[in-house]
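Predicting holo structure, zinc ion bound.
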Amino acid sequence: MVRADASVSIKVLLNATASHYGFRPTYRRVWMAKQKAVVLIYGDWDESYNELPRWVLGVQVTMPGSIAVLRTSPVRVGGQLDKTQAYFHRLLWTFPPCIEAFRHCKLLVSIDGTHIYGKYGGTLLVAIAQDGNSNILPVAFALVENVTPQPGLLVIFDRHNGIKAALEASDGGWLPPITYRAFCIRHVAANFALTFKGKDARRLLVNAAYAKTEVEFDYWFDILRSEDPAMCDWANQIEYSLWTHYCDEGRRFGHMTTNISECVNSILKGVRNLPVCSLVKATYGWLAELFVRKGREAEAQLGTGQQFSQHLVKCIEANLKTARCFTVTLYDRDNSEYTVAETTPTGSFSLGTYRVSLGSQTCDCGYFQALHFPCPHTLACCAYWCTKL
Ligand SMILES: [Zn+2]
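Done. Tokens:
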């Protein structure tokens, strides 16, 4: 059973033993037996760490372009440095197909961590990108020692201070304008709820964060202020560019949480019971399978003559279907700017006016710049442009 699924629970094993052999061992005995089975199938826990450098070297030799960085920390015995031994500190690895595929993804990386079980624990971090079809792509993996969650304002990226420290190092090359950071809204909201109880206030904060325009943001923020000004003070301590959608300059592509990597975590759940070297090998096996499957899907789509990703086509079709009553007026011919007035179907009431710039790919509604594909107002302008050709 352990061979089939290393993440099989002790309870399941206990029940299976009871029904198969007719006696109920203690939880502890089953736990020990499982550890032994894992060692038999996947190798010894300690030996697995020793095997790691060899495997890392093997991958680099057989797959040029693979990146694997293994860091160890020195062992001190009675104040003396023992040069024959080293502690595992952290390992970062990625494979050439991941690096190549990332060139074609949205410029966005989401980082999430999952605790690994077994003898020594630790955290497996996965950096995830997403392609135009909303397929998730693991870009890189890292295995680090346990990071202790620290209460505080900046609960980011799934609460890993290790990630935060790495991103904020002045020589790391991760600071703006080279790289930008953003917080996972769910984690910001969870932190907010520690200070301010009540679901309603939390919902208001999330709505403000998701607002795509300043007007919409102000609307939710004002309600929040009327509930308790301290809530706004709390939120104002975090830079707006880190948690609000309308200030992100389109960098989030609509991703407000680290949800996309959490689906990867569910896949990786099965590997986190394995000794370290088997775990690293498992990520390789999983990626190989993923690339073959996704490659076939993409070939099939190209084979039927599709130019854009199915996901994008679906979104645009949905926007086209919101058949609304738009009156398009050319505003600035040189810069392809339009005003789009929306009215009720009878044309008697105005529902708002939006300025659309095809040149700079923006719309007042905020969707065009945030999601990087045309909103209904933009599509109305494109239709207008076609009729005037
Ligand atoms: Zn719009």
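The beta strands are 67-77, 80-94, 110-115, 123-130, 136-144, 325-332, 337-343, 350-357, 362-363.
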